[in-house]
Amino acid sequence: MKKLLLPVFVSCIIIFHPVSSYSQVEAGGIRPQSQVPPLFWNYQSQTQQECVLLHDRSSLVILDFWASWCSSCIKAFPELNALQQAFPQTQIVLVNDVASGDHPKRVRMAVASFRLGWMQGDSTLSLWFPHQVIPHYVWVYKGIYLGATAKVNFELIRYVLQHAALPPLAMKNDLLTP
Question: Which of 62, 97, 100, 155 is the least crowded, having the fewest Cβ atoms under 10 Å away?
Answer without folding.
Answer: 155
